[in-house]
Design goal:
mainly alpha; Arc Repressor Mutant, subunit A; three-stranded antiparallel sheet; 6 helices; globular
Amino acid sequence: MKLGFQDYISIKIHQTDLNLTKYIKSKLEDFNLAPEQNLVMMLLWERDGLTQNQLAEKLNKDKTNIARMASSLEKKGFIKRAHPKEDRRSLMLYLTENGKDLGEKVIPVAEEFNDVVTQGISNEEIQELERLLSKIDQNVQGK
């Protein structure tokens, strides 16, 4: 039997991703943060002083994309970039005081977002979803 548009799991995942992005974008608007920039900030709030290469690897983004986001976050006054003495080719990203203060406001928003997204879903179901998404990801990466 031929699948209809709504029957493709990739379409369902894509539509869910669009809805998630739209929702978090509306929540981050007041903080002058785009969802992708927020991912960089979340990693820096977790561990300050990451290199652009480490961020690119953790977020599975190309280095140019990360450099562009870092530049924008620096212009907004949330981070500062510096070359470490031992490797002048690397660029380290550090939170500014404004960036640290922003975390105090945005992390609760991210936690609330996670609560909304996982409402009515058990821990076992979340683990199963993570397992299935990992399988899908591996299937795509293997091609």
